[in-house]
Amino acid sequence: YLARERQGNKVAQVPGIVLVYDMVHYGHSNQLRQAKAMGDYLIVGVHTDAEISKHKGPPVFTEAERYKMVRAIKWVDEIVEGAPYVTTLETLDKYNCDFCVHGDDITLTVDGKDTYEEVKRSGRYRECKRTQGVSTTDLVGRMLLMTKAHHSNIGSSDYQQHTDNFGKGPQGHSPWTGVSQFLQTSRKIIQFASGKEPQPGDTIIYVAGAFDLFHIGHVDFLEAVHKQSEKPYIIAGLHFDQEVNRYKGKNYPIMNIHERTLSVLACRYVSEVVIGAPYAVTQDLLDHFKVHSHGTLVPNSCAPSLCRGIFRTVDSGNNLTTDDIVQRIIKNRLQFEARNQKKEAKEMAVIQAMKRREEERMKERAKAIL
Fold this sequence. Notes:
The protein is α/β, with parallel strands linked by helices. The chain contains 15 helices and ten strands.
């Protein structure tokens, strides 16, 4: 939503956005970053599990997990739990909003209607750009197939089979659901990075790991680390894909190093990221970043003789792992396959309808000219 809150003669713009967030990823974070730039205070509406299941299919994360994950994104000031799936003028007025913000992809109800139709007609709707190269559909497909092609060769037959099975329906390819390659740029990293240097009095804390499929377990861990100091400056070391695959095995990581970098940078508890951090923490690394405290997500990656006196084990109270998320998907494989195909079919129906309307307008113009 984008609302105006009057404080005397001062008008503060308060943007907000209503999103499904059935699986929170860096593409959603990028939408929130863009929405926040439209005003001063960002309110995010997050739907319940029941609403998502009704209109889209089973969510990957539970509503409690999604609420907390969205709160942890650094551009978010407030969330509305249980936001309605269809955004109406009544909803905007309830929160004193001028207009709502959504990505440039389309969201449809269970019967194929645009969820923002009413607010679009009233002129109280704004769009931000969709992040190319990522979608919940694609990530679910990666987990179902567990292929390594998403790291190396997007043109491989295995990956093409993945896009056909999980990201595209039989009648065509939707631009919103289909898979495209994620291309990292320095500008994108700068947009996500805080750009803040550690200040005098800050406690510099280093943590390291894969941070794959950034989820509530990671959030709870980083929040617990953040509470270790009054003025924490957390540096997260991310291991390269090959290193993660070495110690995790199978076909991990699901997300490549570039995707994982943006996911972690979007977290409000993280100040800086080391891209391609070494698995073994060395004295040189600790000295380089002037680390006062050190913790790690990966066991046995630190020589105790080097870290003695500053190494801490932090219990987040959450045992959720990337493996657990993958198992959720595999357990409900048929449901997720049906969900992705149904979503694709609805989107293609809208695209065909838009195409027909455009053709009719062109015919009318041609008749008028003649």
